[in-house]
Amino acid sequence: MKVKEALTWAIRQLDLDFIAKPKIDALLLLSHTLGKKKEWISAHPGESLSQEALKSFKDAVEKRRNGKPLHYILGCKEFMGLKFEVNESVLIPRFETEDLVGYLIERYARRAYTFADIGTGSGAIGVSLAYHLPLSHIYATDISEEALVVARKNAKNIGVDERIKFLKGDLLEPLKDVIDRIDVVIANLPYVKVEDYEELPLDVRREPEQALLSSERGIGVYKTLLLQMKTYGISTAYIECTPAEIGELTAFIFSLGFGHRVIKDSGGAERFMVIGVEI
Questions:
Q1: In 47-191, where does DSSP find H-type helix?
Q2: Model's pTM, two decimal places?
Q3: pLDDT tens, position by position, for the chain (279 residues)?
Q4: Which of 15, 33, 199, 252 is least surrounded by Cβ atoms within 10 Å, i.e. has the fewest?
Q5: Of the CATH numbers 3.40.980.10, 3.90.550.10, 3.40.50.150, 3.90.420.10, which one belongs to the domain with range 87-276?
């Protein structure tokens, strides 16, 4: 089978299972299988696939048809121009989160700051900040040791491991001994309501449940974080959530004496909140 034929076959297979972007997925899976760039695939439609490559490609397409997230099959996801390893232990970084990281990079480039990336997962936020803000220092926490293994590897691969300290534990708890060093907290925590979980696409439900689900109408984890901020005297935080969660959180934020401001993403949706004093 030739490259063009393989792509056509894969697109049809993926389309049968209502994969949202069958053409893109087919191209990326073939590029991954052959170890070639997408441009090479497009420029060599008549190139023949070996039997081994064809089998590997068909296996990858079958995994995608069965709901395995594309980037788990590829083993990586690009974020802020950097290549992050991902597997079933971590949530796949979303492009919307790049808007928040880009905002932070622009705002905090002028001098050295210490950030705390809470619920770091793959390390996408903390590692990206360390890479793009070379004066910065990062603490990153996660409750999952498996996720921290992935995050540490990404920090090392990208060359910023000497400026990131990874700690296992619940939210701010691992930072008790260094809390006075933290200038800014960033958190992209679980905010999917339990009742909404089954409505998520199959491939999203293949990502770690503990990285998606939150109690109390989606704001339970953030309420715990806010209470810890109050206890430890943290005055500046940026969080990612949905417009519904922003509305739910507002009264609780005010009850703790924090101010807040909403930041829209590049698509115009209210997705991020600055809590406390923006330094």
A1: 51-65, 70-74, 95-107, 124-132, 145-158
A2: 0.94
A3: 999 999 999 999 999 888 889 999 999 999 999 999 999 999 999 999 999 999 999 999 999 999 999 999 999 999 999 999 999 999 999 999 999 999 999 999 999 999 999 999 999 999 999 999 999 999 999 999 999 999 999 999 999 999 999 999 999 999 999 999 999 999 999 888 888 888 888 899 999 998 988 877 678 999 999 999 999 999 999 999 988 888 889 999 999 999 999 999 999 999 999 999 888
A4: 199
A5: 3.40.50.150
